[in-house]
């Protein structure tokens, strides 16, 4: 008896390797077929690519600006930073059941004194005329903000030179200032200016720090003062120094006219100050919320308020939502833009149906030669993905052109939002592939269901 040697056993790793190579070869084959098919119908291919590109370009232009407007300006700490609100007027003064979005000096003074939060800062917007040392240069206006020393570590403000002033500087109402990088470049050519002086409205301040590039979008800490998408202020100085120097405010709301003097404004119920606190834990948030309620109740018992406590404590996302930083028109524009994308996808679906229907004879022959429905489906799907990839490149080009057009018509503050970043590019590519697959699934499925006998009979 002749014994035959058993065939060598194939390991699982070898089998997996062979299967991987076969799949890669088939993918390359389908890609070759797709490119050849697209070249055979250049007009139809161009129409599909342009249709998808226009839909992606229109939707991504609007979405890019919307994302910039609605993004988290300080994601590492947005759940730890809070705005306290206290109602000093009662209901029926134009705010509904909501407290005003700013505080009175009386309330701010008490909150600063109690020091319940880990960090806290009062602030308000001020304006200056900067008088350069070089007499040949003209004075110019600059926006500023009066803040407490905690402002800088609270909001993770980066420094290029120097640092913030100290709590002792706050207590002494010192003549110190932190300036922006842009102002430092303009006044001192970008060199380290710490220790030098700056003349603001004929008052001399010593520079203790120069900011690095810092532009939170939106400027969540300054929403009630005006444009939340404006540039960072050029000058920051101690809140106590601004109060002691009677520096005027940018916005003020009063339920009745205060007296004409500075002290009368400070002792009035006019709201004009922003206030922020940092609360690192849920327990700290609950403790501060109880403190606000008890404070308002104490004001009621003292006779200052004659209504139940009406207070709020909102973190950054809640604050931006309550202030309607992203207008409803922007959300409507996003819906309209994606409606346009859907229309483009419907047209792309129709074009794909027409393209695959014209090739029914080719698909019938392939089925007759043994190709499975799955193989035809994979071939058409690869062709659809190729169209989507080319459409994504065209869509990015249309998006760039759309943003260039927006920058030409928007205000300078809003124009800064119209720019592409890496995340926007990835979203555009991913959205294009998903959109193209959604548009191509039905035509691909229909193409894979072709009956070879009927096609061969009619060809």
Number of helical runs?
16
Report the span from N to C terminus: 58 Å
Number of domains: 2
Shape: elongated
The number of strands is 10
The rounded Rg comes to 32 Å
Mean of pLDDT: 83
Helix-residue proportion: 40-55%
Explain this structure to me?
By secondary structure, the chain is of the alpha+beta class. The chain folds into 2 domains: 29-72 and 327-458, no CATH class; 88-278, no CATH class. It is 52% helix and 13% strand. It has helices at residues 12-40, 42-70, 105-114, 151-154, 167-172, 181-188, 239-244, 262-266, 282-301, 316-322, 328-358, 360-368, 373-409, 412-415, 422-448, 452-458, and strands spanning 81-86, 119-130, 140-147, 159-162, 176-179, 197-200, 203-211, 235-238, 274-278, 311-315. Helix 12 (360-368) packs across helix 16. The radius of gyration is 32 Å and the shape is elongated. The mean pLDDT is 83.
Quick recap of the structure?
The chain has 16 helices and 10 strands. It has helices at 12-40, 42-70, 105-114, 151-154, 167-172, 181-188, 239-244, 262-266, 282-301, 316-322, 328-358, 360-368, 373-409, 412-415, 422-448, 452-458; strands spanning 81-86, 119-130, 140-147, 159-162, 176-179, 197-200, 203-211, 235-238, 274-278, 311-315.
Chart the SSEs and their pairings.
Layout: H1 12-40, H2 42-70, E1 81-86, H3 105-114, E2 119-130, E3 140-147, H4 151-154, E4 159-162, H5 167-172, E5 176-179, H6 181-188, E6 197-200, E7 203-211, E8 235-238, H7 239-244, H8 262-266, E9 274-278, H9 282-301, E10 311-315, H10 316-322, H11 328-358, H12 360-368, H13 373-409, H14 412-415, H15 422-448, H16 452-458
Parallel strand pairs: 3-8, 5-7
Antiparallel strand pairs: 1-9, 1-10, 2-3, 2-9, 4-7, 5-8, 6-7
Helix pairs in contact: 1-13, 2-11, 2-13, 2-15, 11-15, 12-16, 13-15
């Amino acid at each position: 008896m002749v014994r035959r040697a058993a065939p060598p056993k194939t390991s699982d790793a070898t089998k997996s390797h062979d299967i991987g190579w076969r799949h890669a070869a088939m993918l390359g084959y389908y890609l070759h077929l797709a490119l050849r098919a697209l070249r055979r119908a250049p007009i139809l291919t161009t129409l599909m690519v342009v249709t998808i590109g226009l839909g992606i370009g229109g939707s991504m232009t609007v979405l890019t600006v919307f994302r910039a407007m609605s993004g988290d300006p300080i994601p590492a700490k947005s759940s730890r930073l809070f705005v306290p609100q206290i109602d000093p007027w009662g209901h029926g003064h134009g705010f509904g059941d909501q407290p005003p979005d700013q505080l009175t000096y009386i309330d701010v003074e008490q909150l600063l004194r109690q020091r319940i939060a880990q960090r806290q800062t009062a602030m308000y917007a001020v304006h200056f005329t900067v008088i350069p040392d070089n007499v040949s240069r003209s004075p110019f206006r600059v926006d500023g903000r009066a803040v407490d020393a905690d402002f800088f570590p609270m909001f993770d403000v980066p420094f290029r030179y120097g640092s913030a002033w100290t709590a002792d500087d706050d207590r002494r109402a010192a003549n110190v200032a932190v300036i922006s990088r842009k102002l430092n470049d303009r006044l001192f050519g970008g060199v380290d200016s710490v220790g030098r002086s700056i003349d603001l409205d004929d008052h001399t301040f010593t520079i203790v720090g120069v900011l690095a590039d810092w532009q939170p979008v939106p400027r969540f800490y300054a929403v009630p003062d005006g444009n939340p998408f404006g540039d960072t202020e050029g000058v920051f100085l101690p809140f106590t120094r601004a109060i002691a120097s009677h520096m005027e405010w940018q916005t003020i709301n009063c339920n009745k006219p205060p007296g004409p003097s500075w002290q009368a404004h400070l002792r009035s119920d006019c709201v004009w100050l922003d206030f922020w606190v940092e609360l690192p834990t849920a327990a700290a948030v609950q403790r501060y919320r109880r403190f606000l309620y008890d404070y308002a109740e104490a004001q009621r018992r003292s006779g200052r308020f004659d209504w139940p406590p009406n207070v709020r404590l909102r973190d950054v996302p809640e604050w931006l939502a309550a202030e309607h930083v992203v207008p409803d028109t922007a959300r409507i524009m996003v819906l309209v833009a994606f409606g346009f994308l859907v229309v483009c996808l419907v047209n792309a679906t129709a074009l794909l149906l027409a393209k695959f229907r014209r090739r029914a004879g080719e698909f019938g022959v392939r089925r007759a030669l043994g190709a499975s429905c799955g193989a035809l489906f994979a071939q058409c799907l690869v062709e659809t993905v190729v169209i989507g990839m080319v459409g994504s490149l065209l869509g990015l080009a249309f998006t760039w052109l759309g943003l260039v057009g927006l920058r030409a018509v928007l205000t300078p503050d809003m124009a800064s939002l119209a720019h592409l970043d890496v995340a926007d590019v990835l979203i555009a590519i991913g959205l294009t592939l998903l959109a193209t697959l959604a548009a191509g699934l039905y035509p691909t499925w229909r193409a894979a269901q072709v009956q070879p006998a009927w096609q061969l009979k009619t060809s």
